[in-house]
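Sequence, structure tokens passed on for absentees:
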Amino acid sequence: MFRFWQTFLERRRLAKLDADRLMEEYGPAAYEVAWTMAQEVGSGTLIDTRPDGHWDRVRNIIARRTYRPFWRSREPWP
């Protein structure tokens, strides 16, 4: 049980580090870069040493950090 928890924490730490790195390097385009990486790893185009689902976790972290609701309008409702 303890080994499972350590593995979980290590995967989470790696995902946060990669999300930070992508957001620092690519700015607003970081989500698209993570999405592309997830697609390429899933299709076998890119060989990666990260655990399964890593880039999906990175993409989800970036999405949570950059959340902006699209339904906001500039003018308030009448």
